[in-house]
Write a structure and sequence with these properties.
Elements (H helix, E strand, L loop, with lengths): L6 E5 L4 H14 L2 E8 L8 H8 L4 E6 L1 H13 L17 H15 L3 E3 L8 H12 L4 E3 L1 H4 L5 H10 L15 E4 L4 E4 L29 E8 L2 E5 L2 E2 L2 H14 L4 E7 L5 E7 L1 H17 L2 H19 L6 H13 L5 E8 L2 E8 L7 H4 L12 H20 L1
Parallel strand pairs: 1-2, 1-4, 2-3, 4-5
Antiparallel strand pairs: 6-7, 7-12, 8-9, 8-13, 9-10, 11-12, 13-14
Helix pairs in contact: 4-5, 8-9, 10-11
Length: 403
């Protein structure tokens, strides 16, 4: 296999691990490496990745801003479903992987590469997400997963390899890193090392996107989010691009201590893991979207969406974004959003998100119909008696049988 690979597209962050992978690919496969660095709103300067790749002899370097694509075509469609994995996780890492995989395959086609490579470990979910994405988009592509193939199984061996090959090592990487971080515009995820023990309380310095309850604003923040067909389009009446809107939600969420989650989740590969997640803007958006749906969706549509959501969430978590079943569910979810348009006003304070009011031209709420006052409507209270008797018949039969 070594002699068959001529060119590989590497998902390259510019960090220590992927720089080591880059050099390892060159020496192991004697092949040309194309690097691809995606700006998904992680907050770090990504241009230095270019210099590191050049230093390692890379000729074809792709550095791309994919934030608008990420928010518009991945985050927003996911939020139309009010998606939560295992009831809590907003899937900030999982939803980013299909976009990276898709762009890697496109670059492989553009450059004539016959292989792609990622830096995910052999114990995690990301290896599954990347590789299912690759194979869904290009079935015959060769996939290289260094963490499953090489013998650099420890941080010490990685450091030694870097020193031998004159790869710059950040000072804070000389010893054991306290935790690993994944970040994009939707969230940050911290895992490993000192937080691997669920008995350890996460230290405050681990948090990057949110203020603690104690340090957050003492005065509540009030915002109004406008929706059109299920997607947010404005804040306080000001129309915004998807990225600018999400950045604004992240900032107000941060200042009000919103979006922290300490979760022990079930990985697709079979083990439990602990993650510390920060999703300030996403947490606000989830609450707001649900609130506008309460006003505009009928009970049948809302309840069916609630039944479908866990399956939809698992498909994303397990790396099946490009599967036909996810696409089928997406069409059903998107159809439910045709009238999910209006505005939601929220009060944010000390980790809380409080709905203040809702309004929509497509509201299904009828004040006359629901009123306790005697109003002239199509609803006759006497009709409820027959409705109840018909629905009680099964229960009466069951009760009589017990006797």
């Amino acid at each position: 296999m070594t002699n068959k690979i001529k060119k590989v597209v590497l998902a390259y962050s510019g960090g220590l691990d992927t720089s080591i992978i880059l050099k390892w690919l060159q020496s192991t496969y004697d092949c040309e490496v194309v690097t691809f660095t995606a700006d998904l709103g992680q907050g770090d300067e990504i241009e230095p990745a270019r210099k590191k790749a050049e230093m390692l002899g890379v000729k074809e370097i792709y550095i791309e801003d994919l934030r608008e694509d990420f928010v518009s075509n991945y985050i927003f469609p996911m939020f139309r479903a009010n998606t939560l994995y295992e009831g809590q996780y907003l899937l900030g890492t999982a939803i980013a992987r299909p976009l990276i995989a898709k762009r890697q395959i496109e670059i492989a086609n553009e450059t004539g590469a016959d292989a792609v490579c990622h830096g995910a470990t052999g114990k995690g979910n990301d290896q599954v997400r990347f590789e299912l994405g690759y194979y869904a988009l290009k079935p015959n592509i060769k996939v290289i997963s260094p963490w499953r193939d090489w013998d650099l199984k420890s941080r010490t061996k990685l450091i030694e390899f870097a020193e031998e090959n004159q790869i710059p090592i950040p000072k804070d990487k000389k010893g054991e890193a306290p935790f690993s971080i994944d970040a994009n515009i939707l969230h940050t995820s911290s895992e490993g090392k000192l937080i691997e023990n669920p008995e350890n309380e996460p230290p405050e310095y681990i948090y990057q996107r949110t203020l603690s309850i104690d340090d957050s604003n003492d005065i509540p923040t009030e915002i109004t989010i406008g929706f059109e067909k299920g997607d947010p389009i404005s804040i306080n009446g000001n129309s915004m691009t998807p990225v600018k809107l999400f950045e604004k939600l992240n900032e107000v969420g941060k200042q009000n201590g919103i979006g922290r989650l300490d979760l022990i989740e079930n990985r697709y590969v079979g083990m439990k893991s602990r993650g510390i997640y920060e999703t300030p803007g996403g947490t606000i958006l989830l609450k707001a979207h649900r609130a506008i749906e309460e006003l505009t969706l009928d009970s049948g549509s809302m309840h069916l969406k609630d039944e479908l959501m866990p399956k939809y969430a698992s498909l994303i978590y397990n790396g099946l974004w490009f599967s036909p079943e996810r696409e089928m569910l997406q069409k059903a979810i998107d159809q439910s959003q045709v009238y999910v348009t209006g505005e939601i006003s929220l009060k944010l304070h000390k980790g809380n998100i409080i709905v203040m009011n809702r309004k929509s031209d497509y509201s299904l709420y009828n004040a006359d119909l629901v009123s306790f006052e005697d109003t002239d409507t199509d609803y006759n209270q006497n009709d409820a008696g027959g409705f109840i008797k018909i629905n009680s018949l099964r229960l009466k039969l069951l009760s009589n049988r017990k006797k």
